[in-house]
Amino acid sequence: MVIKTPEDSFELTKICIYANKQRMGKVGVTILAVTWVLTRLVIFPLHILRSAIYETNLFFKEPPVGEMFRILSYILFAMHIVWTYFIMQVCINCWKKEEIQDSRSDDEDSGDEKVD
C-alpha cells in the first residue's frame, strides 16, 4: 500500500489546475512524476519483483500458482513502464506550455453516434 499511496496527491493537482493555479499544478505534476518513478520503477522491482522471483516458491507450493503470480507481476511492471512514458510526456508538456489543459474532452456527447 505504501507504493500506491503517494500518487493520491494527483487529485489535489487536478483541483489546482481546474482552479487556474497553474504553477501549483505544474509542481503537483512534477511531484507525481518523481514519486511515480521512485515507487514504480525503483521500489517495485527492487522489493516486490525480487521477492516474486526468489521467494514465491516458499509461499506457493503448487507450481502453476507461483508461475502465474510471477507472470502477473512482470505484466504489471511492463504496464508501469508504459504509464511512466505517458506521465513523463504530460510532465514535460506542462512545463513547456504556459497553461495546463485537460486533454480529455469536455463534450459529453462527443462519443455518441446517431443511429437511424
UniProtKB/TrEMBL annotation:
Question: What InterPro entries does this protein map onto?
Answer: Lag1/Lac1-like (IPR016439), TLC-dom (IPR006634)
Location, primary (coarse class): membrane
Q: Which residues form the TLC domain?
A: 10-88
Question: Could you tell me the superkingdom of the organism this chain comes from?
Answer: Eukaryota
Give the transmembrane region(s): 27-48, 68-88
Stated membrane topology is:
Multi-pass membrane protein
Pathways involved: Lipid metabolism; sphingolipid metabolism; Sphingolipid metabolism
By what name is this protein known? TLC domain-containing protein
Q: What organism, scientifically named, is this protein from?
A: Allacma fusca
